[in-house]
Amino acid sequence: MANKILIIDDDNHLRESLAEVLGLEGFDCLEAGNAKTGIASAKKNMPDVVIMDIQLPDSSGFQICQELRKFSKDFILIMMTGRFLSAEEKTQGLSLGADEYLTKPFDLQELSIRIRQLLTRKGK
User: Which of 38, 6, 46 is nearest to 22 (CA)?
Assistant: First the structure.
């Protein structure tokens, strides 16, 4: 059975590209264009991995991370950002339960490898 990945990003092109590439890598991808839909999808579909943009129109990746961690400790949470993050912001995300940070643009092959490593560590 393929690992499920939920991608939460308001950038349709990036979200669809990620889903397409990760789908070709053998992952079963779900998509959400905002935080509210993403959180609902995560709770309903229980993906193995949630990749989320830090800045969304209706919330932040930090709030999503906090909400999902309250719901389950099992998700692997990867935060994406298009800007430089301060040490305080990274610390905040990690303390809220983020497993990984990615700065856009990033290499999709590298993302796939990181996801597989995190899944292996979590025994999934």
Answer: 6
